[in-house]
Design brief:
Rossmann fold; alpha/beta; single chain; two-stranded antiparallel sheet; 41% helix; binds adenosine-5'-triphosphate; globular; 9 helices; binds magnesium ion
């Protein structure tokens, strides 16, 4: 994968997608082979890596603002700077007015935005995302795709995005890695030929999108057969 590239990984359940993210993030050591980052083997969590987990992992006992500020607290960012960055993140997440709310009072989509912004607020160069929107309804999901693309257009992080949802992969990614069923191997690396910036709604009505979907669905479908 290249610097500043948005890569999606799709493949059947259990093929090893989360395992790959965990290895890139230094949470799991490979049993064979090596994971290299900028030419150096990964040992421990590399600095500059942000991880958005599959389950919404906000802390129920912390308010929205204190959830988003968590990573900044860990990094010892001074309070004034922390407050400034949290305020900006709350605005980006469209959560103004909910700063002091606890997660239990939010919708699933709002909680997922808190988890996303908590990771983005520390400004990671590499963003690992494991089915971050998997549990959301289509509308909320598409809204978050638009937000994520906006944020990515501004910052161009290197993103590895795991998903079961082919539409999501095509909407977001520069390249899509299709894996076989377990034991997982890389089956296909597909460059998405859709221009940016992308309009998440209009995109889905385009012929080009339909073609991408058809090709990939065929390849992925073989793994479910
Ligand atoms: N290539 C592999 N060789 C050996 N074991 C593997 C391999 N890939 C995955 N596993 C094991 O299979 C199990 C499932 O892997 P993982 O959680 O990465 O799957 P996944 O693709 O993320 O599935 P899901 O889509 O359900 O989240 C884990 O216990 C993992 O250790
Ligand atoms: Mg997984």
């Amino acid at each position: 994968m290249f610097d500043q590239e948005f890569v999606a990984i799709v493949g059947p359940s259990g093929c090893g997608k989360s395992t790959i993210l965990n290895m890139i993030g230094g949470l799991v050591a490979p049993s064979a082979g090596a994971i290299e980052l900028d030419g150096r083997p990964v040992a421990g969590t590399p600095p500059g890596v942000g991880y958005v987990f599959q389950k919404d992992t906000v802390f129920p006992w912390r308010t929205v603002a204190r959830n988003i500020g968590l990573g900044l607290e860990y990094r010892g960012v001074a309070e004034a700077e922390r407050e400034r960055r949290v305020r900006e993140a709350v605005r980006l997440a469209g959560l103004e007015g909910f700063e002091e709310a606890f997660p239990a009072t939010l919708s699933g989509g709002m909680r997922q935005r808190v988890a996303l912004l908590r990771t983005l607020v520390v400004d990671p160069e590499i963003l690992l995302m494991d089915e971050p929107f998997g549990a959301l309804d289509t509308h909320t999901k598409i809204g978050l795709h638009a937000e994520l693309l906006n944020l990515w257009e501004a910052r161009h992080q290197t993103v590895v995005f795991v998903t079961h949802d082919l539409s999501e992969a095509i909407t977001l990614a520069d390249r899509i890695v299709v894996m076989t069923r377990r034991p997982g191997r890389v089956k296909l690396v597909h460059a998405v030929g859709l221009p940016r910036p992308r309009d998440v709604i209009k995109l889905r009505e385009s012929e080009a999108y339909g073609r991408e979907y058809g090709q990939l669905w065929h390849v992925l479908g073989e793994e479910f057969a």
